[in-house]
């Protein structure tokens, strides 16, 4: 299977970060996972990272302190990013309004935005990797 160059995980819940990192390790969809506790830390990283270490996939929590996931996406879109990026919003919500907002953001921004219903599983990560690498 092809692998993703790097994955960025943005979530303020240490249990989610730990469990998703373990699942990524088991699935071997990437060799590099970068994690942040909030969107500001992630934006600082993206402003200062070299292009060869630039994560293709961002797994993003919506409800975080400092800035929420939507604010992160809006700020991220203002960065001069030349790499293809996929953002998957980690959510436990199956509310049609939330799904509609994800679709609106996907159309509004120059990168792909989708949602990934929690809990994250090996199967979901493998499917995600296949869709990104094709």
UniProtKB/TrEMBL annotation:
- Matches recorded under Pfam families: Response_reg (PF00072)
In terms of InterPro entries, this protein maps to: CheY-like_superfamily, Sig_transdc_resp-reg_receiver, TCS_response_regulator
4-aspartylphosphate (modified residue): where? 61
Extract the SMART domains matched here.
REC
Per UniProt, the keywords (alphabetical) are: DNA-binding, Phosphoprotein
Ranges for domain Response regulatory: 6-133
The GO annotation for biological process reads: phosphorelay signal transduction system
What protein does this entry describe? Response regulator containing a CheY-like receiver domain and an HTH DNA-binding domain
